[in-house]
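Researcher: Please translate sequence to structure tokens.
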Amino acid sequence: MKLRILGCSGGIGGNLHTTSFLLDHDILIDAGTGVGELSLTELSVIDHVFITHSHLDHITSVPFMVDSVGFMRDRPLTVYATNETLEILKQHIFNWKIWPDFTEIPNAHAPFMRYQAIELGEAVTLQGRKITAVPANHVVPAVGYHLDSGNASLVFSGDTTTNDALWQVVNQIGNLRYLIIETAFSNSEKELAILSKHLCPSLLVDELKKLKRDAEVFITHLKPGELELTMKQIEHGGHGRNVKMLMNNQEFEF
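Model: Translation complete:
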């Protein structure tokens, strides 16, 4: 499995794009603004989109992608998410008021898009690639994802704050190689991080102490303008790990 980082920022500006990861050539993990970097041909061969939660920075490219390449495809794009997240998409995005309902276009029997509900802990296997929803703790219903090739695994936390349930799952993954975890705010904004259910460096340090596996750790969802400050606070936090900032166009093979 190869994971390419299309976007990993908590905002936009310059070359920054919001959360979107391309798994091999046909699967998206979240669909933030980074998806716009793909060509029409690349977009047209994406068959599956796994959504962590309904916030705009994680879903914004789904409506545009379906509209742009739906006619180029011979089967629906499948959007995977929890029932709660799918209901939000149906009610507030694909509702004919904000955007057309592409589960009915060109018709309900042969639509451009379909929904597939997933449950926490449920594994979806696609051509030998196992994708499992793992716990997240956010202000809306949310999950992270465990990507398992069989040889090695990568876990993406999604948007989350302190989350013991996540570590209970992660510490049971024997082939864990990579962990991508969010830290949205600097320590000066700890109260905002707590209110919005994100992490800041001091909270992250406590969370990483719960990680019992030997994995490479990468930080995502940093706010523009606070990249260096937040990473310095993480590095000086005393967590005892070599933590790196996730970068656009970075690739992971596992």
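Researcher: Any highlights?
Model: The helical segments are 40-44, 56-59, 61-69, 83-92, 164-170, 190-196, 201-208, 227-235.
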